[in-house]
Amino acid sequence: MIAKLAAIASCCVAAAANAADNGVYFGLGAGHSDFNIDAALKNTDAGFKLIAGVRLLDSFGVELNYADHGKAGVPSGMACVALVGENCPDTSRVAAKTTAAYAVGFLDFPLLDLFGKAGLARVKGKLTTPGHPDFSFSDDDTGLAWGMGAQAHFGSLGARVEFEQFKLFGDEKLRMISASFVYTFL
After folding, report:
1. pTM over 0.90
2. How many domains does the chain have?
3. 3-state SS record for 141-173
4. What's the pLDDT tens digit per position in 19-43?
5. How far is CA 106 from CA 4, 36, 151, 162, 165, in A?
6. pLDDT-wise least confident of 5-19, 59-73, 94-108, 114-128
7. 92 inside domain
8. Which of 63, 59, 21 is nearest to 154 (CA)?
9. Contact 141, 159 (CB under 8 A)
10. Is residue 74 part of a domain?
11. Per the domain annotation, does 37 fall within a domain?
């Protein structure tokens, strides 16, 4: 009987040691967003992101992200034709913020994880033309989002690089490449 209890206890200790990097994690990062509207507009800006998640298993977790993609300047004539159907003067600004919930799959290696994620994102996009409020456009929509990346981890501290894609203004693509620091509470 004692041998059986010792075997069960050693299996529990081994499982706990194997899952030592699992737990609740928070992160903060900086990113570079690419606003691509009707493939005619392509402009980028810097932004930031906040990450909160829980890694339930070595190979699976769930995550919430908030990202401010910044504001990119685009020629108004192209923006207004693409979004409003009319020409307008000056330069317009495109801005977006996303809140996303993901299921995350991990390929776990000793110091590096590769991951892919898919989920839903609420994207708040805005196109404004200063001095011309008639040529402004807002969109607040929920759609599919996905991403992939790599994460190096050293105990509780990790650093990740990732690519994410969202839908903006209907079917247009908003892409973000970011670098983040993550801390896991073991």
Report:
1. no
2. 1
3. EEEEEEEEEEEEEECCEEEEEEEEEEEECCCEE
4. 446 899 999 999 988 877 655 555 7
5. 33, 29, 10, 13, 18
6. 5-19
7. yes
8. 21
9. no
10. yes
11. yes
